[in-house]
């Protein structure tokens, strides 16, 4: 599994964030760790999802969505994240 610093670097590269403050870095790390929990619990709290690329994609995309839309009242999880959660459930045999 990627470290939080590797995830932060991927996050910044995906959004072309050349310069962010330390406060923003901490906020992004918080979004990433919360998104990891969100996806993990949506699939199965006890499953090891780290070997599936959909897991990392889903939690990074969710964290990016939260970061980019932090001033907006969001009501829906992005489609791509929901799709990855469904795929992960299928891989580990969890019924929706």
3D architecture notes:
- The chain is mainly alpha-helical and 96 residues long.
- The protein is 66% helix and 0% strand.
- The chain has 4 helices and no strands.
- The protein has helices at 4-14, 22-43, 53-68, 79-92.
- Helix 1 (4-14) crosses helix 2 (22-43).
Largest sheet report: none
Shape: globular
**SSE sequence, one letter per element:** HHHH
Cα-based radius of gyration, to the nearest Å: 13 Å
Q: How many strand units?
A: 0
Helix/strand/pairing category: mainly alpha
The number of helical runs is 4
**Average pLDDT:** 87
Helix content: 55-70%
Separation, N- and C-terminal Cα atoms: 25 Å
Low-pLDDT runs of 5+ residues are none
Residue share in β-strands: under 5%
Brief summary:
With 96 residues, this protein is an all-alpha fold. Helices cover 66% and strands 0% of the residues.
Furnish the topology, listing elements before pairings.
Elements: H1 4-14, H2 22-43, H3 53-68, H4 79-92
Helix pairs in contact: 1-2, 2-3, 3-4
Keywords:
globular, mainly alpha, 4 helices, 96 residues
